[in-house]
Amino acid sequence: MASSMRILFNGRVLGIFMLWLLLNGSFSFAVESDINCLKSIKASLEDPSDILSFSWDFSNATEGFICSFLGIECWHPFENRVLNIKLADLGLKGQFPRGVANCTSLTGLDLSSNNLSGSIPVDVDHLIPYITSLDLSSNSFSGQIPTNISNCTFLNVLKLDHNKFSGQIPPQLGQLSRIKTFNVTNNRLSGPVPNFTSTNNTIGPDSYANNPGLCGFSGKICKKGKMTN
């Protein structure tokens, strides 16, 4: 009887120990991943004013140290797990930073009012799968808006205004059921606008202004791929 109890006790202790290892191993991986995320972003962007170079100091390495970085909000101040990245109006140059994929718990990304260029990666849904707010406005991004943004199903805010995007707006974006704010003003877009199914949004004609080729809103009727008034 005593032997059986001892085996049962040891089995429970081993189970608890294995669970502890699993949880702490996953936590350590997440922490390391988020640190690498910010290192990659810093390395991939030009920082003419050395703002990130001054603020993002990776030599500290104390618990939660990245949470004090400029523009970084963490889930918990003592945990290196990034919630939001807000790097607006810093004069940054370069392309969309693919390193954000390593911030595996990221829900908000604001790179607005910089000098970023190039296209949005076609696999953006794999880079920021849990994003709720994406603001790339007032940059020089170009090319087409990738269809796969529609797979970022948690999106509430998508701001792509004041860029150089061209082509059609993917109609699949209309399936973003959580979307509240959508803005593509001042681009080079054409064709019909999406038919958003979300009922809790503020998407109106002002969201599409200064795209002469767009139709399907504000009395601009789309007919056989052409716009008519």
Outline the secondary-structure elements.
Layout lengths: L1 H43 L6 H5 L16 E5 L2 E8 L6 E2 L13 E3 L4 E4 L5 H4 L5 E3 L4 E4 L13 E3 L4 E4 L13 E3 L4 E5 L20 E3 L5 E3 L2 E3 L1
Parallel strand pairs: 2-4, 3-5, 4-6, 5-7, 6-8, 7-9, 8-10, 9-11, 11-12
Antiparallel strand pairs: 1-2, 13-14
Protein name: Leucine-rich repeat-containing N-terminal plant-type domain-containing protein
Subcellular location: Membrane; Secreted, Cell wall
Main location: membrane
Instruction: Enumerate the spans where pLDDT stays under 50 for 5 or more consecutive residues.
Output: 3-11, 13-30, 225-229
**Tally of distinct domains:** 1
**Total count of strands:** 14
Order of helix and strand elements from N to C terminus: HHEEEEEHEEEEEEEEE
Number of helices: 3
Which structural class best describes the helix and strand composition?
Answer: alpha/beta
Q: Do you know the CATH topology?
A: Leucine-rich repeat, LRR (right-handed beta-alpha superhelix)
Strand order of the largest sheet: 1-2-4-6-8-10
Rg for CA atoms: 23 Å
CATH superfamily descriptor? Ribonuclease Inhibitor
**Overall geometric form:** elongated
The chain-level mean pLDDT equals 86
Helicity level, as a percent range?
10-25%
Major sheet summary line:
6 strands, mixed
Beginning-to-end CA distance, first to last residue: 89 Å
Strand content: 15-25%
What's the CATH first level? Answer: Alpha Beta
